[in-house]
Structures are given as C-alpha cells and as structure tokens.
Write a structure and sequence with these properties.
Blueprint lengths: L1 H27 L9 H43 L5 H34 L7 H32 L3 H27 L3 E3 L3 H14 L6 E4 L10 E4 L6 E5 H6 L2 H16 L2 H20 L4 H7 L5 H41 L4 H15 L8 H7 L5 H7 L9 H4 L8
Parallel strand pairs: 2-4
Antiparallel strand pairs: 1-2, 3-4
C-alpha cells in the first residue's frame, strides 16, 4: 500500500540517520576532546548516543502504532464511538486518537526525564511536578484541541475548497499560539518575574532600542526547578513580545556573554527571521492540506474508512512527521543561514570584542547543556536547525583546534 510504503521509507531513513550518528559519535568520543574537557567530552558523547538509541526505539514504536491505526485503529474508533450530533462525533473520534497517542508516548517521556536526563544531571523536576505538568497539558489539549477540531469539522462540512480554508484557520491558530505562548507558560508552568538587575535591564533595553524591538518586558523564568539546561527566548508576536531569560542562564553567563546571546536573538528579529519561519511553516501546512484535500475516494475505500472529516484530520496528523522530516533539510539550510547572520548581528551589537563574548557564551552552552560538538554530515542535513557550533565559532574567528577528520570519516561503519 502506498501510504504504508511512504511511512516505511520515512522510518528507514530516520533510523539509518540515527545509526550513522551513533557510529560517528562513538568513534569521535574516543578521539581528541573538542571544546570540552576529556571527561565531559566522553560524557556528552554518551548522552548523544543514549538520546539517539531512545529515538530509534521511539520511531520503531511509532511505526507499529501507525500500522495499527491504518489497519484497524481508525475503524475501531468509527465502530465504537457514536453520537447523533455529527460535530460531537468528529470531536470525540479525533480527541480519542490524540489521547491514545499521548498515553503511548508517556513511557518515553518518563524515561527521558527520570532515567536519561536524571543520569546526566539535567532533571531537576520531581515526579509530582512532572505529573502536574502532564495533567495541565492534557486538560489544555482536550479543551483547545476540541475547539480546533470543531472549527476544522465545520469548515470541511461547509466549503468545497475546505482544505484551503482549513489551512487559513489552522495557520491563524498557529499565529495565535505564538502570541499567547509566553502568557500561558507563565500561568501554568514557569513562574516569570521581572528582571530586578536595573543595570542589566538598561543594557538589554538599549540593545532592543538599537534593533527596533518593542517588548512588554524582560522576565526571569524559574526553569531550574525542572531542568539544568541554559536557555532564553523571545516570546510572542506584536505588542505581546517579551524577553524571557532562564535563571540558569543568568547564573552561568557573564553580563557581556548574556548580552551577546540576546544580541543573537535580536539579530533574528532584525532580519525578520521570525516571520520568515512562520511563512515557511505556513507553506508546509498549505502543502499538507492541499495533498489531503485532493485525495481520491479510492484512497479511503482502500483503507476501509469513510471520507469523513475525522478521518481526514487523523490521516493529516499521522503524516505530519513524515512531511516534516523530509522538509527539514530545506528548513535547515534556511535556518542555518539565518543563524550565521544573527551571530554577525550579535557581534556588531556587542561592540569591540563582541564576537569573543558570543564565542565564550557558545562554549559555555555546549559545556552546560552537554552538547556533543561533532555530528555525522547526514545527521546535520536532516536534523540541525543551527550550524554545528564548531562552524559558528570558526565564523566568529575562534581557533577550535585540530580535528582528526580522516579518522572520523571511517565512523560511518561503526556499529551501534
């Protein structure tokens, strides 16, 4: 069957890419340490390999689940859920699909948080906190997911070119989520407090003024209660934009390094990267809706399911990862280019020595986040939205030392 064949190709390419990455990293971690101390280099390599092995297991389970959904899962929901109201019927079937998939993914989420991240020193969350987060996410998914499903159902039922209007509706929802994300995260997950360091606040606002970035404020997130990684983000669109710094970032970076990191993010704003990414994501969504909006009736007949709105929505969600994976190389090329440009802007905004401050910040992020600095070219091609950190450092004029590329060239043959 074509639909199973396409998904099988996606699974095989995904697993092959992970296998190549595992072999590459296993080879590289035995060589000369790069950017990290010897022990940290090996530890980062082990973490990278462990993540990829978990990814392979996850992909394999998802493949089995996909086959089960296609073979009898959708039909099972059709036969066992009944409402006289067509809208309620569609909402119930689609939301049941989402709930079942979420339950299947829970063991992987638990393993990643309380086994893998715990082992490598990232997890700071308690089991109670994790359950609370899962419950809040579940309730929000049920509430807002049901509204979105209802909206798509009404569109499919009312318009001949339903796929075009469904795209417009979903794209509007995506933009709305981007606008409200900081607010919802602050309400239900992270506690955000205004930045109390007046001197740093003035320096950050000066950077924002120089790039025309208008923000509703600079906030500190208590992210350390869940995770030890360093991060920062600019959330929202329009007047809802805000700067959010993880408390872990404030703790580990110097003021100039922190300003360099924020300068990089402001570089994305100055170049309009946020809107470019939204447009690119919109193009992918439009392509997906166009494909599934023009499938022949024989396609559904072959699957032995009705061409009902719920079936269309479930098939769309089942195939989203496939299109996303194969579109990633294009998105990655664009994104990596944008990262280099943002680095240049950060260096300029930071003044004399700005490139060095950004380079120092990148090195600290690699160390604190245990990011292995070397990756297989195929893995970079399919997965990297940012350029490899070594390439970014070279562009910033930093000497990263010698790397035995000849030895690493043989790593593709290494076994898991």
């Amino acid at each position: 069957m074509t639909i199973v064949g396409i998904y099988t190709l996606f699974v095989l390419v995904s697993i092959y890419t992970s296998v190549m990455q595992i072999g590459y990293v296993n080879k590289a971690k035995k060589g000369k340490a790069v950017l990290l101390l010897d022990n940290d280099f090996i530890k980062a390599g082990n973490y990278s390999v462990a993540k990829e092995r978990m990814s392979i297991a996850s992909i394999f389970i998802e493949y089995i689940v996909f086959i089960l959904w296609i073979d009898f899962g959708i039909k099972f929901l059709e036969q066992n859920i009944s409402y006289e109201n067509e809208a309620l019927l569609n909402i119930a079937i689609v939301m049941s699909f989402l709930v079942i998939n979420s339950l299947i993914s829970l063991p992987f989420s638990y393993y990643e948080k309380f086994v893998l991240d715990q082992k490598f020193g990232f997890n700071k969350s308690t089991l109670g906190q994790w359950i609370k987060d899962i419950f809040i996410s579940f309730v929000m998914t049920l509430l807002f997911g049901s509204l979105v499903v209802w909206g798509v159902y009404e569109i499919i039922s009312s318009f001949e070119l339903w796929w075009m209007w469904s795209f417009v509706f979903i794209f509007a929802v995506v933009i709305l989520i981007n606008m409200l994300y900081p607010t919802f995260r602050a309400l239900f997950f992270d506690k955000l407090t205004p930045l109390q360091n007046e001197e740093l606040d003035v320096q950050i606002k000066d950077l924002m003024d120089r790039t025309g970035f208008v923000s509703s404020g600079v906030f500190i997130s208590d992210a350390s209660k869940r995770d030890a990684r360093l991060n920062a983000y600019f959330g929202g669109i329009g007047k809802s934009k805000r700067v959010v710094l993880f408390d872990t970032l404030i703790e580990k970076l110097t003021t100039r390094e922190l300003l360099a990191v924020l300068g990089h993010e402001l570089g994305h704003f100055a170049h309009g990267d946020i809107y470019k990414n939204i447009a690119l994501m919109g193009a992918i969504l439009l392509g997906m809706f166009a494909i599934f909006g023009n499938l022949p009736l024989s396609f559904y007949t072959e699957l032995e399911i009705s061409q009902a709105p719920y079936a269309v929505m479930i098939l769309l969600m089942l195939f989203m990862p496939v299109l996303g994976f194969f579109m990633m190389p294009i998105m990655g090329i664009v994104s990596r280019h944008n990262e280099y440009e943002a680095d240049k802007t950060a260096s300029e905004l930071s003044g004399p020595g700005g490139s060095i401050e950004l380079a120092n910040a990148l090195k600290k992020l690699v160390n604190e986040n245990k990011s292995f600095p070397l990756s297989h070219p195929l893995y970079i091609f399919f997965h990297y939205t940012h350029p490899p950190v070594l390439e970014r450092l070279k562009e910033l004029g930093v000497d990263v030392g010698e790397i035995d590329k000849k030895a690493l060239g043989e790593a593709c043959q290494a076994e898991i």
